[in-house]
Amino acid sequence: MRSRELFRVTGSIGLGLALSTGIAAAGGIPSPFTEEAFTRGLDFIMGPYPQVQGYVGQGCGFVDIDDDGDPDVVIIGRADGKVGIFENVGGGVFVDHTLTSGIPAMQEQEGFAAADYNADGFLDLYITQANNRPNFLMKSNGDFTFTDVTATTGVQNGVQNTTGPSWTDYNHDGWPDLYVSNYGQSNALYRNNGGVNFSNLAGVLGITGGPISLSFQTVWIDHDRDGDKDLYLSNDRAPLGWPPNALWQNNNAIFDDISVASGADVSIYSMGIAAGDVDNNGYPDLYLTNINAVDSSGQGVRGYDGENPLLLNLGNGTFVDACDTWAVCNFTTSWGAIFFDWDNDGFKDLYVNNQFDPNHFFVCDGEPPCSEMAEQLGIRGDFDPDFDYDENLPTIASYNSAVADVDGDGDLDLLLNILGGRSELYINQEGHKNSYVRFDIVGEHPNLFALGASVETTVDGQTQFSENYAGGNNYLGQNELIIHFGLGSANTVDQAVVQWPSIGPPGPTRTLTNLPANETWTVYPPSLLCDADGDGVDHDDFVEFASCFLAGFSPGCEMMDFDGDSNIHADDLDDCFVTSPNDCNANGTEDLAEIMLDLALDADQNFLIDCCESGTADDPNPIGNMLRLDKDGSENPLLSWIAPVVDGTHGAATSYDVFRAGAVPGIFDFLTNVGPTTAGDTSSPDQAFYLVGARNGCGSSGEEPF
């Protein structure tokens, strides 16, 4: 449960590695993926092609349903209408919960997107249907069962043909909102009303896509890097006169149509969307899938000859199509597409789902052109490698794919949903040869999964940028929410700037430095730092801090690294537990640091060394307030203790025992029965007196631990 699990250590990768021996690379030849779905317990057979149910493909993806750090699998498209729910029990091994999930059968199911709409710490599923069937919002119970809350939340979406949904917090009130693509009707934007229900505001905000739109998919991206999410809409059949693709810029929850001005208004048969920074200029690019169709002259409308446009974001509010330069035009009918760094070299590659041809995988290195390597890497997505695609139509078709690190080995694995056959899970055998870093971003309540967050990393002068997407970044499905970067041979991330969504963007940011590679780091916003149990910073958190200080910076202790320098030290102690810096026992070690190293020194857990606190005659171990006298303000006083004495006992004193700092550090001279006036009237300009009930060993010297 996200709201409670603030200290999470990543799981073991041993089981996944035991299943995947891989194919050793020789002479620089990359190791191909290995298909292991059935072996790993992922057994899901989709309905046949041509489709009996559904509109144009059905979705698949990764959702951490139980929030244990392992990506679980959701697949749509079984012939009986059941939604596939598979638990990742660790290392990429799956247990089937399909028949016990409580999700009703849906004969016209299409796509899904996951978000925690009610802030209970678990990701919920919004599942769409075509052919005038209602959609469903299934609230996760966190145990792979779900409760239907569609009617009470008001997101049935009427009689529609709904395709791809996507979530984000568009108005920065903390609650995830939902955009729904309706093929043939107006689209809907459901504003989340405090986790209780939703209101459709698409018409009010002017983002319906028209009275009759042919929208397949939408994605929320921060195209201008101003901290809020803009909306990109993928529309079908624009060459036949229907609306082209659209980009609405979000200006504090008011949307401006910048489609034409930005150059993002392409007119194609647009279906799926891949969003990602393929050229590493720090801005999200867009890749759009299309059909292989041209007009009677052999030319597509506006010059798109059946190609898939690659819209490079120039960072100035405009896009330019560069599919030809990058060699990714993919002249065949395609649906899903994903950018991901398969070999962890620091550059995003591109996977494309083709309907009537083997899938394509374009391997890129940050500069054009990319190289198509699907066959070489064993991820064409076809069951029969000897099938003659030039002479026959296949009996299966590939519409959807998704990526996640299912086995925890630090590289991204690939899931395919294929009509007419068994879903395929391709395990990456190459990426672990390079370094990586992964960010599991925790959000402020109620946006616990930080939807809309982004990360920009810098390694040896090279910048990468990624956002988390709750649906929309592909077609009808969802990738894992964890943000993944390949690092090549680097062992350290020089800098990572994490930005959260917030009311009045830009939201809170944190800058992390010198971050070790090859880990999944949980990143907390500034407001949650040092609060391990979520009840406010207190002594329990101090105990956790002490444990992390002694263990060193590692996964599970990220929350205590207040300044983000990948080290837990004295500055973090002072920032986490804001108190006046005191050394009440004058041993050269700040009190909080001393308590951290020996918690028994603060038995009453009030962040004060017990032997330095005031007491009464009834207190068998009185301790007291500190009185520090520095008469000339030099902040360099001599150190002394004054112990009040009343008839040989400690209490309300009329005379004092004085322990004055001697010549040897930590050794104190004893002056007995000094009257109050004498005790406070020292002629030494830098005499310090500490009024502390009893000495109790407080005069011992200490060593600075940092």
Report on this structure:
The chain is mainly beta and 706 residues long. Helix content is 8%, strand content 29%. It contains 10 helices and 39 strands. The strands form 10 sheets. Strands 1-28-27-26 form a 4-stranded antiparallel β-sheet, with no helix packed on it. Strands 2-3-4-5 form a 4-stranded antiparallel β-sheet, with no helix packed on it. A hairpin with a 5-residue loop joins β11 and β12. It is globular and about 85 Å long. The two termini are 36 Å apart. Residues 4-27, 295-303, 614-697 and 699-706 have low confidence and may be disordered.
Would you spell out the secondary-structure blueprint of this structure?
Layout: H1 14-19, E1 34-35, E2 60-63, E3 72-75, E4 84-88, E5 94-96, E6 109-115, E7 124-129, E8 136-140, E9 146-148, H2 150-153, E10 162-168, E11 177-182, E12 188-193, E13 197-200, H3 202-205, E14 215-221, E15 230-235, E16 246-251, E17 254-257, H4 259-262, E18 273-276, E19 285-288, E20 310-313, E21 319-321, H5 323-326, E22 334-340, E23 349-354, E24 360-363, E25 371-372, H6 374-377, E26 397-404, E27 413-419, E28 424-427, E29 435-441, E30 454-459, E31 462-467, E32 483-488, E33 492-499, E34 509-516, E35 520-523, H7 539-551, H8 570-576, H9 591-597, E36 640-645, E37 655-661, E38 668-674, H10 676-680, E39 690-691
Parallel strand pairs: 29-35, 36-39
Antiparallel strand pairs: 1-28, 2-3, 3-4, 4-5, 6-7, 7-8, 8-9, 10-11, 11-12, 12-13, 14-15, 15-16, 16-17, 18-19, 19-20, 20-21, 22-23, 23-24, 24-25, 26-27, 27-28, 29-32, 30-31, 30-33, 33-34, 36-37, 37-38
